[in-house]
Records
---
Amino acid sequence: MRAVCWRAARDGLAGHGIDPFSGRLVLQSTLVERLLHTIALSLRQHEDLDFVREQWQRLRTEGTGADRQRAAYRQRSSARDVVDYAVSATCPQY
C-alpha cells in the first residue's frame, strides 16, 4: 500500500500505478477506467454516473490541481509561484 500511495502522489493521474491484481505498473488512466467500469452500475443506481464521468473527463482534459501547481513551479522554479497559484485558485478575490 505504501508503494501504491507513493506512486500516486509522485506521478498523479499522468503516471503509472500498481495494478492491484497483477502487481505490474499500468497507466493510472487505465486503472481509473477499470474502477469506473467496476462501479458503473452502482453509480448509475445512485444517479452519479454522468457526474463522475464528466469529472473524469475534466481531469483528463484540464489536469489536476497538482498538475497546475507543478506547471506554476516550472515557470521560474519558484515555490512562491506555487503559493501564488494556490491562493488565486482558491481565493480569487486576493
---
Amino acid sequence: MARKNPPESMQHHLRQRLNQYARDRWPQLAEVQIRYRAGFAYLDGLLPDGTVQPLCRLRFTGVLHTWGFAIYLASHNGYHDDLLPSGLPFGSPEEALDCACGLYLNDPTAWLPPPTN
C-alpha cells in the first residue's frame, strides 16, 4: 500500500515553517525547497549561487511536529534512515534540518544540545 502525502495545508505549513526557521538559523541558504512523494518530504537547500544541495528526507507519521529522518548521502546519491543528535530516528522538522545543514554547511554546533540554564 502506497503511503499518502500529508494534506496540502500541512505541506504549506511545513514549507513556511522550515523557510522561516532557515532564515533565522541558516542564512547560508537562500531557501529550503520541499517536494513530496509517497509519504516523504524531500528537503533541498537552495544556495545563493543557485546550487541545490539535497539535505534529508522526512517520513510523514501523520503528526505535524514529528517526522522520521533520513540523511542524504552524497557518496551513495540516496537517503539513509538515521538518528538525529537526540538519538531518536524521528523528531521535529527543525531538528532534521539542523542535522543535515550541520553536515552539508559545515556547522557542527547544530548537533549540540541547547543550554539548560
